[in-house]
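Reviewer comment 2.1 asked that we show a complete input and output for one of the modelled complexes. We chose the ketopantoate case, as it is the one discussed in the main text.
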Amino acid sequence: MPTTWHVLGAGSLGTLWAARLFRAGLPVQLVLRNTQRLQDYRAAGGLTLVEQGQAQCYPVPGETADSPGPIKRLLLACKAYDAENAIASVAHRLSAETELILLQNGLGSQDAVANRIPQARCISASSTEGAFREGDWRVVFAGHGYTWLGDPAHPVPPFWLEDLDGAGIPHEWSTDILTRLWRKLALNCAINPLTVLHDCKNGGLLEHHCEVATLCAELTALLENCGQPAAAADLQPEVERVIHATAANYSSMYQDVANRRRTEISYLLGHACKVAQRHGVAAPHLEQLRQRLITHLDNLGLPSD
Ligand code: NAD
Ligand code: KPL
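Response of the prediction step:
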């Protein structure tokens, strides 16, 4: 009997994963917040995934977080700021046999989740796939990419990664997942807040070369001094390459702000500043950037934590 994939977080990435696992014939259960959400979901008839303009509805079964029954395999696919509460809602269903994939961007939420459920194995993920919600229970697969998975505490991959092969979810096991997460965090810190503050696409940062270079220098020093030297290597040229390659795009933080959604600032820039302080690394420009961003979000009436 194959193990059921529980998916907690029926948003963009949760839907993208649940639909692909389900259509590969694997058992999947969507875990919803409460009975109202479950009723809404059942009324919709399933999750709709739009790929290359074609919409397909997948009747993935749903349940609530307080449904009975153990959870052995869980994909946690909510925002970083929701991860700790989301895991708390199903903690009583997890055991020493449970393995989880944490699909959150940034850093900080993974440790918070792992501390809540010391009995379970937590696998961190970093994804370059892109998806967005077009409506409730309807998601557009917007950009092909890759998901790196890894467990900082245990380098051996779980056998069930073969389910991802079967489901056509491009992935790779990484023995240095923390390096990947830190590298992505550094890229996001050097690009995303400035696009919000300068109200521009990523390419608009070509006009703010000095500001970007100063942030890259501080991020490089931070990574080198907090035990992440591999994530520091050639950071600035990569930031510049990403700015060029994504010049026509709006950063994810820009899109969050434009759509009046809460950002993941605390798990990106906020985490970088916290770690800098903990390690006694001077990061005045990162701290000033964080303050400017918080003021900007406050002025817009958006959450700044
Ligand atoms: P999303 O907001 O689209 O979906 C999150 C879902 O989790 C929402 O449906 C929300 O209602 C649900 N949720 C939150 N708390 C819950 C709870 N307690 N119980 C049940 N459901 C709960 O978010 P997303 O875009 O899928 O992003 C998830 C993570 O992946 C983020 O950290 C994001 O930065 C990262 N990421 C997203 C993309 C993308 O293209 N969307 C790409 C790379 C990384
Ligand atoms: O990941 C990104 C984002 O927008 O969140 C990029 C494109 C790398 C910019 O930081």
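The chain has a mean pLDDT of 98. We note this here for comparison with the apo prediction described in Section 3.2.
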